[in-house]
Specification:
GO terms for molecular function: hydrolase activity. It is built from 6 helices and 2 strands, in the order αααβααβα.
Length: 180
């Protein structure tokens, strides 16, 4: 059922499209601001990564970075779920800089969707780099069971996460590993 996705796309474009985003983000990160976090260039705020090069890829594909888009979807109207395609394109886009600067250590940070194909992303990176991954928000817990409906789930708010994920997989045109 793509009705929820269509409604979300119409009502919350910022959560469903990158069309409103600038071509590049510019955050100096030199001030003590909570919203800078891991992107801070200050050693007091970000002791582990303040000297690092960081690339922020906004999550606007509404598919946990799992969806696969190909050229045959170009003429289709409605929402497109391209998260995995976006992640791989971001890596390809950053490769020239990684090679130019001789990136020795690369840390990929992403959610549960990214973690399902982290080995594919790591294979795209320079062979000389030590690659590691950090999962951001991979523990999913339902704290309030009262608002999760039973077998009749008409939209994602009334369904358990395992139900919405299994319904999203074919819609996003992705294949999850059997371990998922």
């Amino acid at each position: 059922n793509c009705g929820f996705c269509d409604r979300r796309f119409r009502e919350h474009v910022a959560l469903s499209s990158s069309s409103f985003l600038p071509q590049t983000f510019n955050r100096s990160g030199f001030t003590w601001q909570s919203e800078v976090g891991a992107f801070s260039k200050g050693g007091e705020v970000n002791q582990n990564f303040y000297k690092s090069y960081a690339a922020y890829i906004p999550s606007c594909s509404s598919d946990l970075f799992l969806g696969v888009c190909d050229d045959d979807q170009a003429d289709e109207s409605g929402p497109k779920f391209c998260g995995k395609t976006i992640a791989k394109a971001a890596i390809r886009n950053l490769l020239p800089e990684m090679n130019h600067y001789g990136a020795a250590q690369i840390i990929l940070v992403g959610g549960a969707g990214i973690m399902t194909y982290i080995s594919e992303l790591a294979e795209m990176l320079p062979a000389t780099a030590a690659v590691s991954a950090v999962c951001d928000g991979c523990a999913i817990q339902i704290l309030d069971q009262s608002n999760v409906g039973d077998s009749d789930c008409s939209d994602s708010d009334s369904c358990a996460p395992e139900t919405t994920l299994s319904q999203g997989v074919p819609l996003w045109r992705t294949d999850l590993p059997s371990s998922c």
